[in-house]
């Protein structure tokens, strides 16, 4: 028994190396390569891939006939994109109430059915060139971790999932209106924090279940209870001790101030952040994940709820506020991370609806390459994974996509034209495949 344990420990503690698998060499000829770290397009590059990772990047050269070459010289090659804010185990109709649907999910949808449906939604991201997602809760009790593991072991296809497990939250979670005697249902979806000591335990429970990051709700509006600075500080301290980053859902400016004081690494949504809070975030290099949607998304949404945009006066205010905040954040130097937060059925696949984040930032005035950096390198930094994902560089995973068109002059339709998708060295979509 002891010997088995020792062997296990030796294997487990041995420095982690990426699985090499079959050492097949593949070379991609890229007409342009987007270098996400320097945020520029480099012409005529060859990417050497060995197994699941990138070995080297060189200039064009004559290749021997026996080498396996994927010719993307007519295309722009990018690192696989990252959606930093997803909920693949949750889906509601546009006209459904979030709390009602949460209760229905928790009481009338089995974990097995929920996971299978989540698997299908997850897979749809690959088709759009999104090869990694950060799944931030509303995923039952660690169903996101299970989905991640099933994808990593190759049982099903899907993007890399970085799973947060149940969101750490004050009493009630985000599910408003549940009576006192039924609050135990909330424990099936959120990890309710009762004290600073309990907050530390919650992080340890998540570590024990192998989550990849910690997501908290600094506030829970319209539920009024919120986490205290002391509770959030305890979460951050414990998470950082395990090398996990902490990102905080914040609707109010107040809760964002508290979360920043507690030392979180990122703020999700931040709809009401004031200029001085953005200044503080820039100073402390705290990531912002803006999750607004574009005008065309809102038009579809209005149609689905049987309204028209003219009858939705608030949409104009919503769009201009989002734009103003994003532009101010960029001016001040807040690191921006791309995230969709799309969990509504929108007549297209979940992956497709999530690409709306790119359109939203573009409409708000963000420059094309800056948007790409937010969806690759900066997003990976938010997870401390910038050597592994969101980059085409030696030792990173071979998560590589290609688009047709001119990124800088025709961003939206070019990003709509993903023609090649590789994840971990495996090709999921190739030029010449029938169109989507
Ligand atoms: Zn969310």
TrEMBL record:
Pfam families: Amidohydro_1
InterPro entries, per database record: Amidohydro-rel, Metal-dep_hydrolase_composite, Metal_Hydrolase, Metallo-dep_Hydrolase, OTAase-like
PANTHER family reported for this sequence: ALPHA-D-RIBOSE 1-METHYLPHOSPHONATE 5-TRIPHOSPHATE DIPHOSPHATASE
Gene3D superfamilies (UniProt xref): Metal-dependent hydrolases, Urease, subunit C, domain 1
Protein name (Swiss-Prot/TrEMBL): Amidohydrolase family protein
Domain Amidohydrolase-related: 76-427
């Amino acid at each position: 028994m002891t010997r088995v344990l020792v062997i296990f420990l030796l294997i487990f503690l041995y420095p982690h190396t990426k699985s090499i698998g079959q050492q097949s060499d593949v070379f991609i000829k890229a007409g342009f390569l987007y270098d996400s770290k320097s945020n520029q397009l480099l012409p005529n590059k060859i990417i050497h891939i060995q197994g699941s990772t990138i070995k080297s990047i060189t200039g064009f050269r004559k290749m021997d006939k026996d080498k396996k070459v994927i010719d993307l010289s007519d295309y722009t090659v990018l690192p696989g994109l990252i959606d930093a804010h997803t909920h693949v185990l949750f889906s509601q109709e546009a006209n459904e109430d979030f709390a009602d649907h949460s209760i229905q999910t928790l009481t009338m949808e089995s974990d097995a059915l929920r996971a299978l449906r989540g698997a299908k939604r997850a897979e749809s991201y690959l088709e759009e060139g999104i090869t990694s997602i950060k799944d931030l809760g509303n995923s039952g009790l660690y169903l996101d971790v299970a989905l991640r593991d099933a994808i990593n072991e190759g049982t099903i296809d899907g993007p890399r999932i970085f799973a947060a497990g149940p969101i750490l939250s004050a009493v009630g979670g985000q599910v408003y209106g549940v009576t006192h005697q039924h609050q135990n249902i909330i424990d099936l979806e959120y990890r309710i924090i009762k004290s600073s000591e309990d907050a530390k335990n919650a992080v340890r429970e998540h570590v024990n279940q192998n989550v990849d990051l910690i997501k908290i709700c600094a506030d829970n509006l319209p539920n009024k209870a919120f986490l205290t600075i002391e509770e959030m500080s305890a979460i951050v301290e414990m998470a950082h001790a395990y090398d996990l980053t902490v990102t905080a859902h914040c609707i109010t400016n107040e809760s964002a101030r508290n979360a920043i004081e507690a030392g979180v690494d990122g703020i999700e949504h931040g709809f009401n952040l004031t200029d001085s809070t953005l200044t503080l975030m820039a100073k402390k290099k705290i990531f912002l994940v803006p999750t607004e949607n574009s005008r065309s998304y809102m038009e579809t949404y209005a149609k689905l709820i049987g309204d028209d945009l003219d009858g939705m006066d608030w949409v104009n205010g919503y769009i201009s506020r989002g734009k103003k905040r994003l532009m101010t954040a960029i001016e001040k130097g807040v690191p921006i991370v791309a995230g969709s937060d799309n969990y509504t059925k929108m007549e297209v696949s979940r992956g497709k609806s999530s690409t709306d984040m790119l359109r939203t930032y573009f409409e708000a005035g963000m420059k094309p390459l800056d948007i790409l950096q937010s969806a690759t390198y900066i997003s990976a930094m938010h997870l401390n994974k910038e050597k592994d994902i969101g980059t085409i560089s030696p030792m990173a995973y071979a998560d590589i996509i290609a688009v047709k068109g001119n990124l800088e002059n025709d961003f939206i339709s070019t990003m709509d034209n993903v023609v090649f998708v590789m994840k971990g060295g495996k090709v999921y979509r190739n030029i010449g495949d029938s169109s989507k």
